[in-house]
Design goal:
Number of domains: 1
Mean pLDDT: 82
Distance between the termini: 58 Å
CATH architecture: Up-down Bundle
Largest sheet: 3 strands, mixed
Number of strands: 5
Number of helices: 12
CATH topology: Rhopdopsin 7-helix transmembrane proteins
Shape: globular
Helix content: over 70%
CATH class: Mainly Alpha
C-alpha cells in the first residue's frame, strides 16, 4: 500500500477506548488474560499432538496448524493493543499499520481455508471410513495445509501491497487495531475498485470455503442418518461437534464483518465483532477441542502420567 500524500510519513491515532479510561483499564486486564490463555491453550495442544503418537493422524495435523495459526493471529495485534491501553495517545505509522493489517488479513484467510480442509478430513473419515487412510495420505495433508497458507498470501498480502490510497482530513482510526475496513474509511480517494476487489476476495476466502464446509457437512449428515448404530451416530457427531462449533464462531463473525453493507463510519458493533474473531475465537479453540475431545483429554492424562512417573523415579 502506498500513499499519495507526498514523502512525509503518515501517522494514525488508534482511538480504541482511550476516551473511556476506566473501561480501557478493564479492557486491558481482560485482553491480557485472553492473550495468556490463548498462548497457553494452543501451546498445550501443540505439545500434546507432538509428543503423543495416538494423535499423529490427519485430524490433529490440521489442528496443530490451527493452534499455531491462532497463536500468530493474536500476536499480530494483541500486544500492540495492550501497549496502546497504557499510553495517552496511541500512535502508529502508516507502514506499521499496513503491516499489521496485512498480517491479520493473511492469517484470518488461512484460518478460513484450514477450517475447510478440516471439514474435508471429517467428511472422508465419516463418509468413506474404510478408505480413509488411502485418501488422507500424509502428502495430501501437507498439500492441503501448504495450499491454505500460500493461497491466503495471494488473496490478501499481494492485493494490499499494491493498493494506492490518499488520506486527507483527520487520521484517527476509531478501532483497537488497523483493520482494513477502518483504514479504508479514512481514505478520500475513489474506493470503488478496492471495494469490488475486497468483495471478490471476501467471496473467495469466506463464502467459497464456507459453502464447501456446508456441502461437506451435508454429505456427513446423509452418511450419519444411514447408520443403523446409535453408537456410530453418536461417535460421528462427537467427531464433528468441535470443528462445527469453531466454524460457527469464526465464520459467523467474519462474514457479518466483511460481507455486510458498509458505511463511512466505524460503529461499536464493528469493534466487538473484530474482538470476537480476532481475540475470543483463538482463545476458545483449545477449550472447544480439549473439552469435547476424548482423544485430546486422554493424551493430556498420559502426558501428566509420564511426568508423575518421572517424579516418582527421581
Amino acid at each position: 500500500m502506498d500513499s499519495q500524500n507526498g514523502t512525509e510519513e503518515i501517522y494514525f491515532i488508534l482511538l480504541g477506548l482511550s476516551q473511556y479510561p476506566r473501561a480501557q483499564t478493564i479492557f486491558f486486564c481482560l485482553l491480557l488474560v485472553s492473550y495468556v490463555m490463548t498462548l497457553f491453550g494452543n501451546s498445550l495442544i501443540l505439545l500434546l499432538i507432538y509428543y503423543d503418537p495416538w494423535l499423529h493422524m490427519p485430524m490433529y495435523f490440521f489442528l496443530s496448524n490451527l493452534s499455531f495459526l491462532d497463536m500468530c493471529y493474536t500476536t499480530s495485534s494483541v500486544p500492540q493493543m495492550l501497549i496502546n491501553c497504557l499510553v495517552t495517545i496511541p500512535v502508529i505509522s502508516l507502514g506499521q499499520c499496513v503491516a499489521q493489517m496485512a498480517t491479520g488479513l493473511y492469517l484470518g484467510v488461512v484460518e478460513c481455508l484450514l477450517l475447510a480442509a478440516m471439514a474435508y478430513d471429517h467428511c472422508v473419515a465419516i463418509v468413506d471410513p474404510l478408505h480413509y487412510s488411502v485418501h488422507m495420505r500424509p502428502q495430501l495433508c501437507v498439500l492441503l495445509a501448504g495450499t491454505s497458507w500460500t493461497t491466503a498470501f495471494l488473496l490478501t498480502v499481494v492485493p494490499v501491497l499494491t493498493m494506492t490510497l490518499e488520506f486527507c482530513g483527520h487520521h484517527v482510526i476509531n478501532h483497537f487495531s488497523c483493520e482494513l475496513l477502518a483504514l479504508l474509511k479514512l481514505a478520500c480517494s475513489d474506493l470503488r475498485f478496492y471495494e469490488l476487489l475486497m468483495l471478490g476476495t471476501s467471496a473467495l476466502s469466506l463464502l467459497a470455503p464456507f459453502a464447501f464446509i456446508v456441502g461437506s457437512y451435508g454429505r456427513i449428515l446423509v452418511a450419519v442418518l444411514r447408520m443403523r448404530s446409535m453408537e456410530g451416530q453418536g461417535k460421528a457427531f462427537s467427531t464433528c461437534a468441535s470443528h462445527l462449533t469453531v466454524v460457527v464462531l469464526f465464520y459467523g463473525t467474519a462474514i457479518s464483518m466483511y460481507m455486510m453493507p458498509q458505511d463511512k463510519t466505524i460503529h461499536e458493533r464493528d469493534k466487538i465483532i473484530s474482538i470476537s474473531y480476532g481475540v475470543l475465537t483463538p482463545m476458545m479453540n483449545p477449550l472447544i477441542y480439549s473439552l469435547r475431545n476424548k482423544e485430546v483429554k486422554g493424551a493430556f492424562r498420559r502426558l501428566m502420567g509420564k511426568k508423575i512417573d518421572l517424579k516418582v523415579r527421581c
